[in-house]
Amino acid sequence: MNEKVVVNKDKEEEVLAELDAFAELPDAPPKRKFRLSWVGWAATGVVVFWLVICLIGPSIAPFHEMDIDGDDSFLSYGDPDYAPDGGFVANEYGTFYLGTDYLARDTLSRILFGARNTIGISLAATLLAYLMGITLGILAAVKGGWIDMAISRVNDAILALPTLMMGLIVVAALGTSISVLIGTAAVIYATSVFRIARALGLDIMVQDFVEAAQTRGEGIWWIIKSEVLPNAAMPLATDFGLRLVFVVLFVSSMSFLGLGVPPPASDWGSMVRENLAGLTYGSWAAIWPAFAIASFTIAVNLIVDDISAKSGGSLAKKMV
Amino acid sequence: MEKEKLFEIKDLRISARNDDGEEVKIVKGVTFDIHKGEVVALIGESGSGKTTISLATLAYTKPGLYFAGGECCLFGKDVLSMSPLEQRDLRGGNVAYLAQSAAATFNPAITINEQVTEAAVLHGRLSQAEANKRATELYHALELPDADRIGRRYPHQVSGGQLQRLMAAMALCGKPDLMVLDEPTTALDVTTQIEVLKAFKKVIREQNSAAIYVTHDLAVVAQVADHIVVLYGGEIMEQGSADQIINNPQHAYTRRLMEAVRPKPESGQGVALSGEHDHVVANIEVKDMTAGYGGIVDGEPVIPILKDINVRVMNGHVVGVIGESGCGKSTLARVMAGMLPPARGDIVLDGKKLEGALKDRKLEELQKIQFVFQMADTALNPKQLIGNIIGRPLEFYHGLTGRKKHAKVSEILEMVELPPAFANRYPMELSGGQKQRINLARSLAANPEVMLCDEVTSALDSIVGANVIKLLTKLRDETGVSFVFISHDLSTVSSFADEIVVLYAGRVVEQGPTDEVLEPPFHPYTRLLISSVPEMRIGWLEDTMKKREMAVGIARGVEITAVGCPFYNRCPLAIDGTCETRSPPVLELNNGHQIACHLTLEQLEEAEAEAQKILLGYEQLGKDDPQLHVP
Fold it and tell me: Between B323 and which of A72, B72, B163, B327 could a Cys-Cys bridge form, CB atoms 3.0 to 4.6 Å apart?
């Protein structure tokens, strides 16, 4: 049989001291510093850059977004006819740093002007969608019963309709304007936010700490404000980035169909659609706005990912 | 008798990396051997590295950990340096792992037999036909009911204890050299634990396989282990034969662990009816209460849980509620707290009838009754600071704000023996025992008259749990609050409660002062519970299996019956024709001690004397009989 006998006497005093000095005590509270990784910082930089462009874009743009500068459409960097030395293309109106589009408008200026429309509309619509979705979703989860039933069924009905079709009908009925566009996008995307918020709410409502608040006699608003929302915030924020991308694409699709931002005002989505034909001539006019959309939406997602990974990412996973 | 060395674990080191990429040592150089046919127990509290070490025999670490050094040799070959293909053969082939929860291990959609034989066939150790034959042999060896056919069932069709034993069959099917058992009985009721322990022990002996038994429970270890390794903070504190560690521990930490082991439930521990606390008025009382789930039809709950309950909690007293899982202990507390309105009956606080539903109760009534949840992990909002968690009841009930609130929070933190600086921490930054203290502190902050504690020590390590009980005793003495203390652990209850209520299948089978309940005459169910609490003594398992109540009482689950005594199918003294048809009368004994049983007092006393005689006889006759003998 195993006859090995060991008594680790060296450690004896140390261990006892630890036990007596409250052995359960963790050494120190873990660092609670809010730290972004370099990716997070870079992404923040990109987002800040675009937000600044929203504000000052029109004043730094070399041309107006609606100026048609000659008839030189689809010019691109290094075009030998317009830039004999290589480099930026130019004609008698001026230099086009990112070339011109299908109507010979300056692409750079249109991107700088369009930031306002694209980011503004998308952000406004997404925020509005979140406001509606969270309010109704948490309400449905907390109240339950027929309130939940009523809101959920209406939500299902809206979800059943194809988003673009739905948008077309609403805009056709109410007319094309930016506020209608924002409202429509918000309602459409609020449905998915509602489902997430409701599912999260239901999960949180059965946690013991909510029951503890209920046995204390707390009111429904206090429970929502103090117990439910703080725990739902991180998973919802993670979803926000993704939803924003969808809204940008939705707004772009609507613009393409002529029901979004009314031309000739620029927005990035319609710029891509307008200039698609240019791709066959080797024009970059469709690439630059696409790049702008990508840089903004990816940056937003990276920030959200970074925050949720650093702080309570595990909790978000647990809750979803 | 010298046995061959199976595993040699030499200076094993396992580490993790923290966020800053620094090495954090988890296992700091552990050395021990496992011989053939030997059970080695790894004991220690959570964080001692016991599971991590046991997994090293499978050349596996949990994600985030890595082997930092040392060897883990099976028949002289280091498993840590094996190729992935060899390791694949090792896992499930040479070494089988049994996780803590059988319910989570089995796939609910596949029959038991398929899962039991899967590893053996997959590793080519047996053909499917051989594996089936061996599985059936193992079912017999593990004394499973209907052993020839149980393999065709699905996991949800057998009881929890049976599933735990089937997991042993799964591990043993491929004749592994070593079994790793990770806390296999920790989550079980005491009565089920015995059933599982007995089967494990028998099958390990018969198969002559070696095992690593990971647990924090010394009393369980004393029953199964040959060799014990005591761990603390990833280091071995002491190792030696089971006999030596249990009977003659050398290291101070081992002795500390022994002190925290639940003592055998004995009378005379509580401060029962000391007179000082005694008031004539019942503080909270439950009268003829029936409750259940699924709505109420014709005054009866659709799924009845509790039936005709009468419980009184006197001012400043501690009433312990015990019973196996599924007996309705938590439901009783939930009804008292107003979370579940009763179908019938009254809850009376200070002579005033309370409304059944939470929303109909007055704020001051809510404040007087506070519920303490079992799991501090889920009972504390992870997004609130401790100061806000404790501060909220102060603000809500007593209108304290600002500096006054802050001062009171510090005071309450000191009451639960935590530094006031903890107010600025989040629950995740505390250990399990500390969270449980915060959980208690939140209820204390309401300044309640009754605290309903639902299994508050069950999820904690033994030393930590013992400290929480000490704290509760202190709080009771300081504040004069009445406690309803729910636990499935009779020894914890007996050390703390003035009175005990024994619940079985939603009915009170026995209640009275602790001293009376823990002294004969017993209700047969109380007898079963008392006999099932493991003692820290080698050979206890064998002794206790000789008792008559064990033969009938274990290996059966709680069934809620509509008529008769619910315990009759597990009762060694059941009277056929009477017990299953008529509800038992209540025998009134001294000091308010009540037993609900068809047997007369004389018959119960006689049965007790008989049981003692039989036990004594066995002790004289067959002390060294190695076979487990069940009369």
Answer: B327
User: H/E element holding A236?
Assistant: helix A229-256
pLDDT at B165: 83
A chain contacts of residue B239, beta-carbon cutoff 8 Å:
4-6
Residues of chain B with pLDDT under 50: 1, 270-281, 622-631
Residue A152 CA to residue A150 CA, distance in Å, equals: 6
Give this complex's ipTM. 0.76
User: Which residue ranges form the domains of chain A, and what is each CATH number?
Assistant: 112-319 (1.10.3720.10)
pLDDT value of position B151: 87
Contacts of A29 in chain B (CB under 8 A): 425, 429
Alpha-carbon span B241 to A269, nearest angstrom:
76
Report the SS3 class of residue B34. strand
The rounded distance, in Å, linking the Cα atoms of A308 and A29 is 20
Q: Is residue A40 pLDDT above 80, yes or no? A: yes
Per the CB < 8 A criterion, the answer to whether B243 and B538 are in contact is yes
DSSP class of residue B91 equals B
Q: How far apart (Å, rounded) are the C-alpha atoms in residues B474 and B458?
A: 19
**Nearest chain A CA: its distance from B214 CA (Å):** 18
User: DSSP alpha helices (H): ranges in B338-461?
Assistant: 363-368, 376-379, 386-398, 402-415, 432-445
Q: At what angle do helices A145-160 and A107-143 cross, to 10 degrees?
A: 150
User: How big is chain A by its Cα radius of gyration, in Å?
Assistant: 27
User: Against a cut of 0.80, is the pTM above it?
Assistant: no
How many whole angstroms separate alpha carbon B48 and alpha carbon B184?
18
Assess B466–A contact: CB distance below 8 Å, yes or no.
no
Record: contact A207-B378, CB cut-off 8 A = yes
Residues B147 and B112: beta-carbon distance below 8 Å:
no
What is the set of domains in chain B, with CATH numbers?
5-106+175-260 (3.40.50.300), 282-491 (3.40.50.300), 524-621 (no CATH)
Under a CB-based contact definition with an 8 Å cutoff, are residues B83 and B59 in contact?
A: no
pLDDT in tens, A218-236: 888 899 989 998 888 888 8
